[in-house]
Design brief:
InterPro entries: NAD(P)-bd_dom_sf, SDR_fam. By secondary structure, this protein is of the alpha/beta class. It contains 10 helices and 8 strands. The protein is 44% helix and 10% strand. It is globular.
Length: 357
């Protein structure tokens, strides 16, 4: 057999093998939309004005707030609002030291101009959610500096289209960065958060997970368990947001499950939010045409901070709840609220993060 024919034969076997994988994998199933789902999309494009704003925030004197990815987008605006209108000690966990320190300097300047507050207490600890090996050292550094933690805001995330890149541990980038990494971070911070909650009034200690209305693009049950990394699932243009939707569905499920798994944290409110349809750097991987459209139909990122801090402070927020822009109670997709689906995800994430505890 000549070399060219041998090469062609090997390529054919390779193609047939790949096709066989696609055939044996079941395609993702999507639930039908409900009126409540469409109403949530409408709220994203046409939200009301925020009503729970800085004049409603507690002083947070002596309190510690931790936010991931507070150096850009909604996280930046959340840190700025916290720094300007509360006396909290703020920690930003993020991967880029140079960018974060520059953001902190800029926040201090803007807070001095807008809030007349000088030198707010903002601190940085390096951590990369896409690399699980970096998370425990970051938590250890935090614990060496602090004896309490009152509020955790899981804000950092990525939206990558098309699906493909992986984290250092081999997870699809959005799943690893938006779900697996935050799960490990939360596990490592649970002891100090729970201990602090015992010194606070019920509901003062909180966990906020930044999700998205994009959770509606997740497969039925939230996770495509047959191919969780989408390695062998053919995804057309219509569903190229599926990986991001899956990760945001998981955030909702994490928020709904945390309290069931932590009876010792009964005084802690854990909830998720869609901060709004916002013009942030999450859309940087979109096409030029998409970004041009987004600039017209999306809302300023500053408004998203009001959704996040509504979840962090408002007495209206209940444990396991879901809020949308800009501080409005809502409901996630019903299949994401089922205990068996949430427990399956929780068990998967616990097993995935056990080696890094």
């Amino acid at each position: 057999m000549c070399i060219s024919n041998l090469y062609k034969r090997r390529e054919l076997v390779k193609i047939l093998s790949t096709e066989q994988i696609y055939i044996t994998m079941s395609a993702p199933v999507f639930p039908s939309r409900t009126w409540s789902d469409y109403k949530q999309f409408k709220n994203g494009f046409l939200p009301g004005k925020p009503t729970f704003k800085e004049d409603h925030y507690p002083s947070l004197k002596g309190k510690v707030v931790l936010i991931t990815g507070g150096n850009s987008g909604v996280g930046y605006e959340t840190v700025k609002s916290l720094a300007g209108s509360t006396k909290a000690k703020i920690y930003i966990f993020s991967r880029n030291e140079k960018k974060t320190l520059a953001a902190i300097r800029q926040i201090r300047q803007e807070v001095a101009q807008e809030y007349n507050v000088t030198n707010p207490d903002i601190n940085f600890i390096r951590m990369d959610l896409s690399d699980l090996d970096t998370i425990k050292p970051a938590v250890d550094q935090f614990l060496s500096q602090e004896a309490r933690l009152d509020i955790i805001i899981h804000n950092a995330g990525v939206m990558k289209r098309p699906i493909g890149p992986k984290t250092r541990q081999g997870y699809e980038l959005q799943l690893g960065t938006n779900v697996v990494g935050p799960h490990l971070l939360q596990r490592l911070l649970d002891p100090i958060l729970i201990d602090t909650s015992k010194m606070n009034h019920p509901g003062e200690s909180r966990i906020v997970w930044i999700s998205s209305t994009a959770h509606h693009f997740a497969p039925l049950g939230g996770v495509h368990w047959d191919d969780i990394n989408f390695d062998h699932t053919k995804i057309g243009k219509l569903y190229n947001v599926m990986g991001y939707g899956q990760s945001k569905a998981c955030n909702i499920m994490q928020a709904r499950t945390w309290s069931r798994k932590h009876s010792a944290g009964s005084q802690i409110i854990c909830s998720s939010v869609c901060p709004g349809f916002l013009n942030t750097q999450l859309a940087r991987n979109s096409s030029c045409i998409e970004r041009a459209i987004f600039s017209v139909i999306l809302h300023p990122r500053r408004l998203g901070a009001y959704t996040v801090l509504y979840a962090a402070f408002s007495p209206e927020v209940e444990d396991g709840s879901f809020s949308v822009s800009f501080g409005v109670p809502s409901q996630p997709r019903k299949d994401l609220t089922q205990d068996d689906a949430c427990d399956k995800l929780w068990d998967f994430l616990t097993k995935a993060t056990d080696p890094y505890m």
